[in-house]
């Protein structure tokens, strides 16, 4: 059996320290114990390095993250996370039971489709002075739905007592909520889960305050 | 072995004829040959029937679809589709190969997180007179990324020659694009795939023009 060079190479994450979708992927790599290289894409500098022709060839959506892995390039964080989960050993990021898997995906998609896209950089750049109010509105709207769902599904973590993709989505979204000054006191279940998850090393080493491209004044 | 009543019951789809996310679920049920009941939720009438307390208990996000299936209630169409795929016989909606699965999920999420949320009813209701221009902008932005990706992944359908979740996401998104008068001539691959898919019975019987809640003037 011959392994191709592409399969021997470490995955490359093209991301940005503060991008919540990049952070999701970093958590997944850390939980699975996968070594990877980071090539930072600064979303602000030079008018946005994601807008270059070079990066567009990697991810035509001109967003982070993009991941080069096993000879292919993937974008969309949940697709990347599930690919890592299906091809790497280590703890499963989705439970084996189909109903629990569905709940993990429901919570992940509520965040990834129902909240994050509406406070994404390229959207709020269009909102001008209203961007804080707009982002708060859609994060609160999502968290008001997420709170009762998590009350039903959560144990120690979002779905039962095992860490899953839902947790990987939750923590970066709470980080965004705090940036946009959302009052987390209204969401006791989300707050409790976030605090429990931030105790875990994989969530700490992947944190925006500890990345190669974290500016010095934001570094932990 | 005893089957619970919940497992014997037909799934119930709470949806809306013109909702692209409801249509996704209808296509999946049709492809898998699963019989289901529909309970229409009119997103316009009475200020929006999704906003009632009764519906909120079913889906706290107050969006369609919500699906009652096997004793649980699921929202988020891609979570529902993958649950159906993992628990029902019939053609697989995700390929067996991990790389192809990742490409299917990438394309599905590009639509479900990158395009659809930005032209969702509750967002464009906030845009007032600008809603047509706003929707066109974000659909064009997404399709400009999707076109080169599909050029690489597509065979007869979005990923290779088998119908997948990516196709289930594509067709309703093109339907939305046409409603918002996006020029589809700019996207020859998307256009070709959409036309091929609309030839298939599962995409026809699930079409917005043929649902129990389709108004007479929009009925095919």
From TrEMBL, chains A, B:
Signal peptide extent: none
Swiss-Prot/TrEMBL GO biological process terms: glutathione metabolic process; L-phenylalanine catabolic process; L-tyrosine catabolic process
Domain GST C-terminal: residue ranges: 97-216
Keywords from the named record: Cytoplasm, Isomerase, Phenylalanine catabolism, Transferase, Tyrosine catabolism
The keyword 4Fe-4S appears for this protein: no
GO cellular component, one term: mitochondrion
InterPro entries linked to this entry: Glutathione-S-Trfase_C-like, Glutathione-S-Trfase_C_sf, Glutathione_S-Trfase, Glutathione_S-Trfase_N, GST_C, GST_Zeta, GST_Zeta_C, GST_Zeta_N
Sample GO molecular function, one term: glutathione transferase activity
Catalytic activity: RX + glutathione = an S-substituted glutathione + a halide anion + H(+); 4-maleylacetoacetate = 4-fumarylacetoacetate
Domain GST N-terminal: 9-92
Pfam families: GST_C, GST_N
UniProt cofactor(s): glutathione
Enzyme Commission no: 2.5.1.18, 5.2.1.2
Protein's pathway: Amino-acid degradation; L-phenylalanine degradation; acetoacetate and fumarate from L-phenylalanine: step 5/6
Entry superkingdom: Eukaryota
Compartments, record wording: Cytoplasm
NCBIfam families documented for this protein: maiA
UniProt similarity note: Belongs to the GST superfamily. Zeta family.
Protein name: Maleylacetoacetate isomerase
Species this chain originates from: Oreochromis aureus (Israeli tilapia)
Gene name tied to this protein: GSTZ1
């Amino acid at each position: 059996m011959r392994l191709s060079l592409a399969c021997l190479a470490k995955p490359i994450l093209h991301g940005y320290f503060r991008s919540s979708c990049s952070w999701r992927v970093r958590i997944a790599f850390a939980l699975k114990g996968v070594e990877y290289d980071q090539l930072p894409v600064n979303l602000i500098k030079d008018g946005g390095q994601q807008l270059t022709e070079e990066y567009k060839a990697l991810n035509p959506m001109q967003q982070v993250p993009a991941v080069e892995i096993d000879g292919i390039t993937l974008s969309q964080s949940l697709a990347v996370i599930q690919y890592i989960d299906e091809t790497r050993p280590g703890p499963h990021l989705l439970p084996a039971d189909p109903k629990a898997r569905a709940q993990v995906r429901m919570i992940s998609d509520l965040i990834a489709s129902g909240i994050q896209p509406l406070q994404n950089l390229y959207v709020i750049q269009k909102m001008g002075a209203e961007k804080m109010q707009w982002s708060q509105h859609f994060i609160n709207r999502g968290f008001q739905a997420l709170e009762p769902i998590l009350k039903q599904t959560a144990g120690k973590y979002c779905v039962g007592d095992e860490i899953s993709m839902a947790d990987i989505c939750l923590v970066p979204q709470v980080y965004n909520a705090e940036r946009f000054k959302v009052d987390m006191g209204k969401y006791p279940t989300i707050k409790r889960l976030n605090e429990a998850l931030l105790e875990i090393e994989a969530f700490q080493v992947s944190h925006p305050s500890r990345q190669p491209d974290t500016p010095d004044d934001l570094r932990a």
